User: What shape does this take?
Amino acid sequence: MKKYQQVEITEKAAEVVRKLKDEYGEVIFHQSGGCCDGTAPMMIEKDDMYLDESDIFLGELEGVPYYMSEDMYDIWKYTHITVDVTEGRGSTFSLEIPLGLRFIIHSRIMTGEEAKSLGLSDNMLNNKTKE
Amino acid sequence: MIYQKPKFKEKYGNFINGKFVEPVNGEYFDNYSPIDNSFLAKYPRSKKEDVNNAVAAANAAKEAWAQTSATERATLLNKVADIIEEHLEEFAVVETADNGKPIRETLNADVPLAADHWRYFASAIRAEEGSAVELDKDTVSLIIKEPMGVVAQIIPWNFPLLMLSWKLPPALAAGNTVILKPAEQTPASATLLMEKIADIFPPGVINIIHGFGPEAGKPLASHPGVDKVAFTGETTTGQLIMQYASKNLNPVTMELGGKSPNIFFNSVMDADDEFLDKAIEGAVLFAFNQGEVCTCPSRLLVQEDIYDEFMKRVIDRVNAIKQGNPYDTETQMGAQASKDQFEKIMSYIKIGEEEGGKILTGGKPAEVEGEFKNGYYIKPTLIEGHNKMRVFQEEIFGPVLSVTKFKDEAEAIEIANDTLYGLGAGVWTRDAHQLYQIPRAIKAGRVWVNNYHAYPAHAPFGGYKKSGFGRETHLMMLDHYRQNKNMLISYNKNKLGFF
Assistant: This one.
């Protein structure tokens, strides 16, 4: 069976990631929720954030691990995420902001095959679209 | 009436130690209007050095400011309110230019409310007092409220002047000096306010620092010279700020958003009267401020036996919303605050459809003609679905309403509470029992009962669950900015007898 990735990245965003890695060294993505600039991946220095088992690892992009909190993952586990970048501002601590850029995500519901390859049951997919 | 785009200077400074100063490294960033993507002005791209200067100024001013009487502080807060009111239109038009919201809202909500919060805390600080208790006939415990010292505040872009006016007055009234960082998307009204009130407070009492989160926000939130941090924004930054605060063992208050349910029971349709009209408007309030409100009533829960009829009226009302020139007082919905917000909202509409949601109206960008075609306009959108869908679980921060139905009270409560957040909620009914019992069953800090989106001073506002903690717009916020000094006094002349 083909192995799928839950997170992917556009070439444009990958370029920004490489640039920020050169500048800051080890960094992570942590997906934020809530108000204002939430529901976007925040790039922060690895040592800046206390991570534990409640931060779920979704994959690696350009060598940068992508996390989201467990309770958000519950809602997102059947979602495929593509990290992209757009011009913009954000009042967060994410490292790309001084460049006049924002990481954003495009997302879609996974196919059954993708879900199975990631070790998820594809039953949930059906439940999600009709209750 | 149509207002004109306001004039700005070419560039502005930080406000530190009572005057406007250039950023230490001389760097600025460009601020654009989301209305038409036009350039407004340059603001300082502050770094650690600027933050250090502001924190030093606030520390130098804190002893003297803490010694001022409540009367003196209240008098100054009232002056600020008067100045905001005298320049109401000027503030309104600057806020509209900077944020994109319609002038109708800034004239009637943002600016007048901002003035009122200054007055409220001016009054509150004079009316309240500490306490004394006689523990036994010779022992008295006095509780005296003392300021924390230096407070750092980081505010969002959705209500720039109003959020500043939620944050600054209680901290100042309590006797603290403050460093406030406006959101980089909306630096204009904070700067305008400091131009107007520059001479009112002693130097160093209010300091305003502009710049980007990782460069200015982080050094401010983690600064050892700060005694308390207040933040409104998203969860990852909230978590980071709490971590920094843990290093300094500083208290924090957090307001981190919500996914607020707005629940309509079948009795709202018992009569076709003013109340039903009010209820329909209540459902449409998701479009207020383009949906960029932490308490946006973004989940509409309607009892199934009135669902079809009720929704027909809601959709008609949504379709009547006037979108367009935000400077026109007839306009009801303006522009989203930035390009990345615009893209995020559109991507949510798409995912809502992919998840099987049905677009009842809207679902696409709004075409706005002429000079505004480069702005970020989205049609108010209704998506019908169920509460497990992502558009029901995540804060979209846009004019997108996720609509579902429920059978009975138990199901309404279950859906309402099935969310990570707990900031606001609305309950609409004519049933006297539901009026009390349903709000009590909802896990949220503010439940509007038969109304929504009212934010008067003297009603506490704050979250349960992942929406944060702390209660703003109420005198209890004073205690988030204060220490309690306990003086334990013995009037007994005799020794203990231990030694």
